[in-house]
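Page 37, continued from 36.
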């Protein structure tokens, strides 16, 4: 049995990177579990805690691109390690807010709420860089012919995190109850300290476990290292395509005002082929934002339903769907088509939710929407990587991710606003239209040409398993 050298690198790195994402997810949701008693002990109101969530989002949006650029300077391996260590330090610092307040009062007046805002902002800033850094890391160790499934293998972490969140909640509640008062700390403080430790440990391990360049991979022989370097160099050259500037380049950065005109222009082969890298990145950010809006609304739909363990089933199926769908995209080379197909299925599922009243049918359609939406979100990332390298890749991926982060949070707010004014059916119709629009733009963008050319031109360099 044979496998590419890049596949062997991915098989070693991706499970470790999934652990990194799961730890960042745990650090976020454990604040919610701790808040029940933490808010009471710190004297925080519900509104103050909710404001902290907004501050977290601001930190994510503001630091996504700077974090991506810093990653390009220091290297993805070091940056992932630094972010994981910082994640553990910041999330663990929430346990010592009273002590932080006391130390700060000597130099400036402050209170618990302001320290919570500061830590939530820092947590958002740290979180902003992690997923883009991982995407760049995985992409840089993959060729166009396999990039979708490699990135997709990592993106199973998102539905996996949702699927195991009930188990995380059970463990968190046990820690809250069993450790309360031990060594002078409350249960919520122990919860935050305990969940911070693995992040710091994994960050330190990342410095030794992850690799920077093929020459540093000790478990490959000299011939394999040279072959891997040649393979990655060939892919890098293919990604440095140039584009001319046409009318669509000026419309793409103005999606709110020109989205329909952009869609119309992209139906022209000349406009589509000549779209600049900058305009392509903006357009993909628009697509990812539309997908994320719907995904945030679907997550809220599931959260509002009476809890059963069956709620984890759609996320478990989404893991399988992401793997199958991204592998299919690599085999066909039609990454935009796969993205559009998944978004179209999500749109149909939400339209069904809007038009049906049967609880079982609605539950099945919501599950289908989760599966399709997760597949679409994972399928988008090979598209920017197909034409971006170096600093533009770091900034572009971070920008697309930041737009998506805003979309997930705004999706829940838009859902509540439309539902309160026009009913739940109207809300589902709005998000279905968002998925449909994302599908149409992805098809019109036509980035398959770049990915397909890279896939056909890149050398295979098959190496036997050791």
């Amino acid at each position: 049995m044979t496998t590419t050298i890049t596949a062997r690198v991915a098989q070693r790195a991706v499970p470790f990177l999934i652990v990194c994402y799961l730890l960042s997810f745990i650090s976020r949701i454990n604040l919610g579990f701790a808040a029940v008693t933490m808010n009471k002990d710190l004297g925080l109101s519900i509104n103050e805690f909710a404001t902290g969530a907004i501050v977290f989002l601001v930190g994510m949006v503001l630091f996504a691109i700077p974090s991506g650029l810093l990653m390009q300077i220091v290297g993805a391996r070091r940056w992932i390690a630094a972010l994981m260590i910082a994640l553990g330090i910041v999330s663990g610092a929430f346990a010592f807010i009273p002590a932080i307040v006391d130390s700060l009062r000597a130099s400036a007046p402050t209170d618990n709420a302001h320290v919570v805002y500061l830590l939530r902002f820092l947590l958002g800033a740290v979180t902003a860089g992690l997923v883009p850094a991982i995407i760049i890391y995985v992409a840089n160790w993959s060729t166009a012919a396999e990039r979708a499934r490699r990135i997709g293998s990592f993106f199973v972490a998102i539905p996996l995190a949702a699927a195991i969140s009930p188990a995380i909640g059970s463990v968190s509640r046990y820690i809250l109850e069993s450790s309360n008062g031990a060594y002078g700390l409350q249960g919520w403080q122990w919860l935050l300290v305990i969940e911070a430790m693995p992040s710091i440990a994994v960050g330190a391990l990342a410095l030794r476990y992850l690799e920077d360049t093929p020459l540093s991979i000790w478990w490959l022989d000299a011939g394999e290292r040279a072959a891997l370097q040649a393979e990655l160099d060939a892919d890098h050259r293919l990604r440095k395509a140039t584009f001319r500037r046409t009318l669509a380049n000026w419309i793409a950065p103005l999606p709110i005002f020109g989205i329909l005109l952009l869609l119309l222009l992209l139906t022209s082969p000349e406009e589509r082929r000549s779209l600049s890298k900058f305009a392509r990145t903006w357009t993909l950010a628009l697509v990812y934002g539309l997908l994320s809006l719907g995904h945030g609304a679907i997550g809220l739909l599931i959260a509002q339903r009476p809890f059963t363990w069956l709620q984890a089933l759609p996320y478990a199926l989404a893991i399988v769907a992401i793997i199958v769908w991204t592998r299919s995209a690599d085999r066909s080379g039609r990454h935009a088509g796969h993205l559009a197909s998944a978004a179209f299925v999500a749109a149909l599922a939400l339209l069904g939710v809007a038009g049906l009243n049967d609880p079982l049918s609605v539950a099945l359609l919501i599950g289908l929407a989760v599966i399709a939406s997760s597949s679409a979100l994972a399928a988008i990332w090979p598209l920017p990587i197909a034409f971006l390298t170096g600093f533009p890749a770091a900034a572009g991926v971070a920008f697309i991710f930041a737009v998506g982060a805003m979309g997930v949070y705004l999706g829940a707010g838009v859902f509540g606003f439309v539902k309160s004014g026009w009913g739940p059916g109207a809300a589902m119709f709005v998000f279905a239209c968002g998925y449909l629009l994302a599908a149409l733009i992805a098809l019109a963008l036509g980035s398959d040409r770049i990915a397909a050319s890279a896939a056909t031109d890149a050398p295979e360099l098959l190496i036997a398993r050791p």
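Residues 2-222 form a domain with the Growth Hormone; Chain: A; fold (CATH 1.20.1250.20). Flag for discussion at group meeting. The mean pLDDT is 84.
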